[in-house]
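Exercise: predict the structure of this protein bound to zinc ion.
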Amino acid sequence: MDNLRHRQNPFYRRVKKSDAVLKCDICSEEIYPFELVHNIDGKIICPDCFFDFTFDYFSDRLFLASELRGNTYDTY
Ligand SMILES: [Zn+2]
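Solution:
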């Protein structure tokens, strides 16, 4: 699968599919030696999946603002 991340990378045209060194644990996209990836709790996360992964990862720390401000909307 080709995506924006790969097309923007000037090294992409020089590699073959067999040059991939990792796969993203979320989308299974192949990851090449020159690409940046996150290693979070042992999971390999590509840049395309990073936002969704971290949103879910920190979901236990996600609150409505009113929950943290005691339901008062007129004061800070
Ligand atoms: Zn991914």
